[in-house]
Amino acid sequence: METISTRERLILSGMEEIRAYGLQGFSLRRVAKNCGISCAAPYKHFADKEALFAAMVDYIKVKWHESIDLGNSMKHGVENAIAHLACSHIGFLCRNPHFKSVLLIKETGLDTPSAAEPIGISITAMRLFVIYGRKHALLRDELRGRIFTVRSLIYGAAVMLGSEEDFAAMEERLYASLLSALK
């Protein structure tokens, strides 16, 4: 059995804290208590709660990038590659529901702009969208609209689908919807 570091436990507990209480109700003391450490211990790992939040975002980014696998989807065109990547992202969020609380947060209240910066679109997805935009000779605003549509489908489905089983049952329909949005 793999033991996780105190830093990682704080990150995961922080995600659960945001899910349960939001940013406004976030308590670093409660996070520490849930990890079984003193209320001063988190400051050995993070300067403040904004630094912990930034670490949560970075943690999710790393986990997402570790899970990306485009497989052979590019052989079937850029639209298929984007749809495959989007479905992978939905599945990733369904397998890791505690990440949703950080990615889908709607509150503000962080003191530093970098900590409040959204995850944004991955470099892999951005490259695919550049290829897609060139292929279809889309203007910048048109491409942004398509990206917005795909991201809306990703995050909407991730919120509506509660589990990996729900995702598995809907994966083919989601894939078809994504392809339709890209045509």
Structural class of the helices, strands and pairings?
mainly alpha
Largest sheet: none
Whole-Å distance between the termini?
A: 47 Å
Number of strands: 0
Instruction: Give the topology string: H per helix, E per strand.
Output: HHHHHHHHH
Radius of gyration: 18 Å
Contiguous low-pLDDT stretches (5 residues minimum) are 106-118
Coarse shape: elongated
Strand content: under 5%
Mean pLDDT reading: 86
Helix segment tally: 9
Q: Estimate percent helicity.
A: 55-70%
Descriptors:
183 residues; mainly alpha; 68% helix
Concise synopsis of the structure shown:
Helix content is 68%, strand content 0%. It is an all-alpha fold and 183 residues long.
Description:
The chain has 183 residues and is mainly α. The chain has a domain at 56-182. The chain is 68% helix and 0% strand. It is built from nine helices and no strands. The chain has helices spanning 6-21, 28-35, 49-67, 78-95, 97-103, 113-116, 123-135, 140-160, 164-182. Helix 1 packs across helix 3 (49-67). The longest helix is centred in the last third of the chain and has 21 residues, at 140-160. It is elongated. It starts with 5 loop residues before the first helix and ends with a helix.
How is this fold's topology laid out?
Elements: H1 6-21, H2 28-35, H3 49-67, H4 78-95, H5 97-103, H6 113-116, H7 123-135, H8 140-160, H9 164-182
Helix pairs in contact: 1-2, 1-3, 1-5, 4-7, 4-8, 4-9, 8-9
